[in-house]
Each structure stands twice: as C-alpha cells, then as structure tokens.
C-alpha cells in the first residue's frame, strides 16, 4: 500500500525522470526510452504502457491514474482547438463503459487533483511527455475529460487567486498545444522524407527540422506535408534567411552574395556545392512539395537575397 505522501513523491520523481530524458533526447521521446523501467523506492514500472490509462501497482482501487496515453488526431484537423486552454482526453471504452477500472482511476485524478504524466504519440514511435497535467473537469455524458498543463517553474502559493491559477494553467496548456502541433508537423514531414535532408541527404534525425515553405501563420502556410521540407539545421537556417532558395522545378539555388564569398570548407561543401542540385523529394507524389508554394517562396528569395 502506498501512502498519500509516497504517491505525491513518486509522481514528482517521475516528472524529474522525464526532465532528464527530455534533456537527453529532446521534446519527443523515442518509445524504447519510455519502455525502460522507472524505479521508485521498492517498486517500478514502464511509463509507456499499452493501456491508455495506467495506474501502477502497488497503487490500489480508488487511487488516481499516473500516466495517460494517446496520440495526435490526424494533422491539425481543428486548428482553432490549439487556442483552448485544455487537452481533451477520451474515456477508455468511450461513454458506454464510463465506469470501468481505468475510467475510475481517471476520475480519481480529478477528485484528488493528482498530477499525471500525459504521453502524446507523435508517430514514428515517438511520444511528447506533457507534465504535470491535471484533470480539470469530467464530461461523463460524452465520455471525456479535460486536461490542463501546469508550468512547474511558476510557484503558486496556497493563497493564490483561483482565477489567476486557472489563467496560468490555460496559457501554459495553449503553449504546449502549439508545441505539440509543431512536433506533429515535424514527424509527418520527416516520415515523408525518410529522415533525410532534402538538400544534402543528411540522415541524422536529431539534426533535422521540418521547414515551412510558406511560413506558419501566413495565408497558405498550412502545417501540411506539401508545405514542408525536411532540412538539416544548416539548410533550414539558410532557407529561412534566403541564403538558399528552391525553384518550383525542385532546383536548389544559392544566393549570388554567398557564392561570391571566400571562406572555409563549411561554406564550400555546406552551401556552395548544393547550388544547382535537385531537391530530394518523397517517393509518394502526394507528399512532394507544392510547386506553387515553392514558386511563391522563391520569388521572395529573389527579392531579398
């Protein structure tokens, strides 16, 4: 049996464990890392489980869930949802089985206001850990609860105003949802390009980004694969700063100013030698860069380079 104090300490230890993993692996954690055993005192468990709602032994009936698992729903089907101050989490089994063991553990997290680890699948066997999350309300008739993320760097005293606390949680969750969408976009783009830089063929995933052709937030700057390019850190920055451009014919162009520079091997091999190369594009035609967007962006390159 786990005491209230042990339960609280175990959850904080789990969050600190996630801190270390994020520091080592980045915002999205590979599945194999989350399947390593987390040990607390005389028991342990794998954070990544098959069940969407997980409460490890030796926690008992009536104790709150510790880990929630789900995945992003298709790329950005409801962009306005990014602006809400919560994540929606469905009951296991939906509203028809609302009183099963798992859902009772979920509701216990609400009743006892216990923080949980929310693992959001980003595809390609990667998960974004969001923590600590709190269940803030229960919509039993429709079979879901809402989750809010708390910024652990913000210390709220017991006398903090409820409205202020709610506002901070909502704002923190909105920021987290934007990060989730960015990571989901990255996952979709890198998968389409088989984890390969479209300019130089680099295949080190940690050094690859998903670059927007038309910037996010602009008209036609949709977070879809056709508006994305898998680029290494160097070529992403070069593309954003109009050092390189990409024609609608998929030809890479290096600015004249850059071609005139004289410097070391990084300039020569990293930039000058990609001038005139053909972009590496996905095998699937529907996933290839949209030529109209490329042309629009290339005209900006010509004006600003």
Summarize the structure.
The chain is of the alpha+beta class. It has helices spanning 4-25, 31-34, 101-112, 162-192, 233-240, 256-260, 265-271, 291-304; strands at 29-30, 38-40, 43-45, 53-54, 67-71, 87-90, 116-123, 126-139, 144-149, 208-212, 228-232, 244-246, 252-254.
Query: So what's the overall shape?
Result: elongated
* Rg from Cα: 23 Å
Let me know the number of strands. Answer: 13
Largest sheet: 7 strands, mixed
Poorly predicted runs of 5 or more residues: 74-80, 155-159
Secondary structure: helix percent: 25-40%
Give the CATH topology of the largest domain: PUA domain-like
Count of runs of 4 or more consecutive helical residues: 8
**Strand fraction:** 15-25%
Termini distance?
Answer: 66 Å
Name the CATH architecture of the largest domain: Roll
The run of helices and strands is HEHEEEEEHEEEHEEHEEHHH
- Structural class based on helices, strands and sheet pairing: alpha+beta
CATH class of the largest domain: Mainly Beta
Arithmetic mean pLDDT: 87
Number of domains in the coordinates?
Answer: 2
Explain how this protein is built.
With 305 residues, the protein is of the alpha+beta class. The protein folds into 2 domains: 4-188, Roll (PUA domain-like); 195-304, no CATH class. It has 8 helices and 13 strands. The chain has helices at 4-25, 31-34, 101-112, 162-192, 233-240, 256-260, 265-271, 291-304; strands at 29-30, 38-40, 43-45, 53-54, 67-71, 87-90, 116-123, 126-139, 144-149, 208-212, 228-232, 244-246, 252-254. Strands 1, 4, 5, 6, 7, 8 and 9 form a 7-stranded mixed β-sheet that branches. The protein is elongated and about 70 Å long. The protein starts with a helix and ends with a helix. Residues 74-80 and 155-159 have low confidence and may be disordered.
């Amino acid at each position: 049996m786990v005491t209230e104090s042990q339960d609280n300490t175990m959850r904080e230890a789990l969050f600190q464990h996630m801190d270390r993993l994020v520091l080592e692996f980045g915002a999205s954690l590979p599945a194999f890392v989350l399947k390593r055993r987390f040990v607390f005192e005389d028991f342990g468990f794998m954070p990544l489980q098959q069940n969407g709602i997980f409460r490890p032994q030796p926690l008992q009936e009536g104790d709150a869930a510790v880990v929630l698992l789900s995945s992003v729903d298709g790329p950005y089907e409801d962009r306005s949802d990014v602006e809400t101050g919560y994540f929606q989490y469905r009951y296991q089994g939906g509203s028809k089985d609302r009183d099963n063991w798992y859902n009772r553990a979920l509701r216990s997290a609400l009743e006892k206001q216990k923080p949980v680890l929310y693992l959001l699948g980003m595809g390609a066997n990667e998960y974004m850990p969001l923590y600590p999350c709190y269940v803030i309300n229960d919509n039993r008739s429709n079979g879901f609860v809402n989750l809010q993320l708390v910024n652990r760097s913000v210390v709220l005293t017991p006398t903090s105003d409820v409205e202020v606390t709610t506002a901070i949680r909502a704002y923190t969750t909105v920021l987290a949802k934007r990060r989730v969408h960015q990571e989901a976009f990255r996952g979709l783009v890198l998968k389409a390009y088989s984890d390969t830089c479209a300019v130089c063929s680099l295949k080190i995933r940690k050094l690859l980004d998903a670059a927007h052709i038309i910037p996010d937030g602009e008209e036609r700057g949709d977070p879809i694969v056709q508006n994305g390019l898998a680029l290494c850190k160097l070529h992403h920055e070069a593309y954003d700063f109009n050092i390189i451009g990409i024609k609608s014919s998929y030809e890479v162009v290096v600015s004249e100013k850059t071609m005139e520079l004289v410097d070391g091997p990084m300039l020569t091999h990293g930039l000058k030698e990609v001038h005139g190369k053909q972009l590496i594009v996905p095998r699937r035609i529907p996933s290839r860069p949209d030529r109209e967007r490329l042309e629009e962006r290339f005209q900006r390159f010509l004006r600003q380079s």
